[in-house]
Design brief:
With 195 residues, the chain is an alpha+beta fold. 21% of the residues lie in helices and 31% in strands. Strand 9 and strand 10 form a beta hairpin. The longest helix has 13 residues.
Length: 195
């Protein structure tokens, strides 16, 4: 069994609440390997593991807030906003081919979701990016119909996704209030960000 499929077993506790998806289609092999995946109920860990030609596993972000750091300038920008990724304990998806490209996943609480809707984001969803440098950005999304790869191969760089010690899926938690307040204020300022 490949190492990513061993990691995949650690996602079993998520499969009933979060749609798991086999990954491997598209030019960069980052797309889910099924039509209608934005509304598909999701696969079990065993189904993803046995899916022919799957190179990774994704999770749909229906209930997850993804903060996608894409480069050193994205990290610097976040720190300037008071959002230091080094001081947050939650699920972190890192790539072994780049220390400055990683994702933090949060599970907002019901109170946080309600607060989002009553503070300028009536849809309760958002998706936006901030360009922070040459080919670098900080992207954030909390919306159905999006997915993020959480384990397996990063085909384009010939690398692999991994979870740093103590920041695997078991660490998934609600965002700190300061982070949530910041992103809600940003989403409220950007009507185009609201889904």
């Amino acid at each position: 069994m490949s190492s990513w499929k061993k990691d995949l077993q650690r996602l079993s506790f998520l499969e009933s609440d979060h749609a798991l998806l086999p990954i491997g289609w598209g030019v960069d092999k980052k797309a889910p390997m099924l039509k209608g995946w934005p509304t598909h109920p999701g696969f079990s860990v065993e189904e993803v593991s046995s899916h022919p030609a799957a190179i990774a596993c994704g999770v749909r972000t229906d209930h997850l807030w993804c903060v996608d750091f894409d480069g050193a300038s994205a990290i610097a920008f976040a720190k300037e906003q008071g959002l230091d990724p080094a001081h947050v304990d939650t699920w972190r998806v890192q790539r072994d081919t780049s220390d400055s490209r990683f994702k933090l996943l949060f599970l907002p609480s019901r109170l946080q979701t309600a607060w989002l809707k009553s503070n300028g984001v009536p849809s309760g969803n958002f998706s936006f990016k901030t360009i922070t440098g040459d080919a670098e950005q900080l992207e954030q999304f909390f919306t159905p119909g999006r997915q993020v790869i959480v384990c397996g191969s990063h085909w384009k760089s010939r690398g692999h996704y991994y979870w740093p010690d103590s920041n695997g899926p078991e660490a998934l938690s609600a965002p700190p209030e300061s982070w949530w307040q910041w992103v809600v204020a940003e989403a409220a300022k950007r009507p185009e960000a609201q889904q």
